[in-house]
Amino acid sequence: MLILLSSLGFLTFFAGRLRIKLSIAMYLHVALTVLWLYAAGLAGLLRPGAIISVLAGMGLLAYTLIWLFRRRAEFLPLKWSAGKLSQLLYLVPFVFFVSLVPFDFKLTGWDEFSFWGLGAKVIHATHSLYLKDSPIVDIFKAYPPAQQLFQYYFLFLGPWSESGLLSAQIIFMLAALACAIGAFHARASVLEVLTFFSACAIPYFFGFDYKHIFVDPLLALVFAASVALAATAKGLRGSLLVAVSLAVLVLMKQIGLILAMLVIAIHFFSSVLQTADIGVAARFKRAIAQVIPGCLATLLTFASWQWYSKSIGAGLTVSMPKLSSLFQDPLLGRIGKTGLEFIQRFQAENFGLYPGGWKIVLLMSPLSVMLWLMALSAICILISRRYEILPRIAAFSLLSAGAIAYLLFLLLSYLLFFSEYEGIRLASFERYAGTYFLAWALVVFGAYSGAVDTFKIKWLRPVLAIPILAGLLCLPLGLFAPPVASPQIEKVLEQRERIDALAELVKKHAAKGDKVYFIDQNSTGFEKFMFSYSVSPLETQWWCWSVGEKYNKDDVWTCKEDLRKLLDGYSFVVLYNADEQFWGSNSDLFVPDARGRTTGVFSVARKDGQLVLTQVQ
């Protein structure tokens, strides 16, 4: 309730006192909250910073209410236009999607366990940014924390809650989505709000939804909001809004820096090409002045996070291969396999939408999506007002070129940053490609709606608005009914029940700083990362959850290591799936009564140089 009242204070101040549109004010509140908590976290004052933020919102609420009371005649709803009144409807999707989150909601996604959920849980437990001893692998500690910071703000006054975690994610997503649409509308209108409603369906086309906490759709929405603000920015206020959004974009994920550079380019050329009674040289000077805040915000957030990451020993060192090695095995073979897989996936119809009651399946390949978005971008340009045509050409041309550069960067990443196992399989390619396409699609949708809203031939506006309203038909009907778990989700939830029980047993006996070793023979690690999340903030091992001989030629997870050596430094070992191979090599470490069991929790001790494993109940 305090968070709600505080947020109301910020929104009423931004919208009422500063005259910022509600669609942008919601995103501005979220963005400033993230940046404030980030600064507080760098100073080691995350919890005090969150408390100050809540109190500031309460103070702004009191101030704004007093200010509005003194000017109450000016703000009587009876005197508002239909456009202003419709702005209140922006809150409907927030209430709708959050209300659909079950109170007992559980995370079920692989990456939610390996980092996105784990990172948020660690920050919530420690009231701090990641530390040197945080139970997160160093590679993930280098991931910027914007998403987790807002989730922390939403949850820090109460106990850990996965339903609250998802609710915070939804609020962040919808706030950015509202900004991406609203920024293209100079004035509040009914069409603007209806466009926002329809746009809620677009993430589904690219395989995203409002039931997971993956950062990729959130990154896409923040990127879209940044582009929308940059393409429509005017004056100092517009430049500051872009700067705030760019700072958050950089703190979303490492790729945010590259996307931020594209946003700065869009801001610069959109400013240069804006109609004005000044010369070309003066336009360039104006554009340079307008992008300076965004450049500074980008550099400051990037440099500060790089500094903090190094201070806790986080990050990934990438060694560039020599030019000669590109033409020799094994890298040459990897390049060939990765390139062929990229070409096949680029043409495979892996994006699709299942419109609610129409039962129509629309499938597209990444190539088709790019071509369609280019064509739709051209339509947006054609129906734009005369003075907007050149800025829109610049924005959409840069987005088109950026898509090509982004995909090439993805291909390079699979060769340099991913393991060979993931690289040649283009792991999560559709999710990463869909991130850019989703942002581009939302910018097109918002720009089209804004152009329709001000189209010079008024009687054609309802006709041109039909594609926007058709988006309402594409919202999956499943949203309007209680969620029904699929057999796959039911299986994951059953696994979570078993995993959570083992984790709680460990926590019952563990002390602060204890480390836990998890065994799950012949598996890809899904249950291991699920356990790491459940047992957090206790630390688990990163790899080697399966030990002994490899089970097949594609097995990259099983380690042929002595369990005695692997357990060095660990206080507990948890057996989740111990098979014959495991017991054939390690039965002598356990008491006779425990041998042959599939599961169990054992404390680890050493007496007279001998390893002693004792089962705990």
TrEMBL record:
Membrane spanning residue stretches: 25-43, 50-68, 88-105, 165-184, 190-206, 213-233, 239-266, 360-383, 395-417, 437-455, 462-481
Domain of life assignment: Bacteria
Species the sequence originates in: Achromobacter mucicolens
Record has Nucleus as a keyword: no
Lineage: Bacteria, Pseudomonadati, Pseudomonadota, Betaproteobacteria, Burkholderiales
Keyword vocabulary terms for this entry: Membrane, Transmembrane, Transmembrane helix
Name of the protein in question: Glycosyltransferase RgtA/B/C/D-like domain-containing protein
Presence of keyword Protein biosynthesis: no
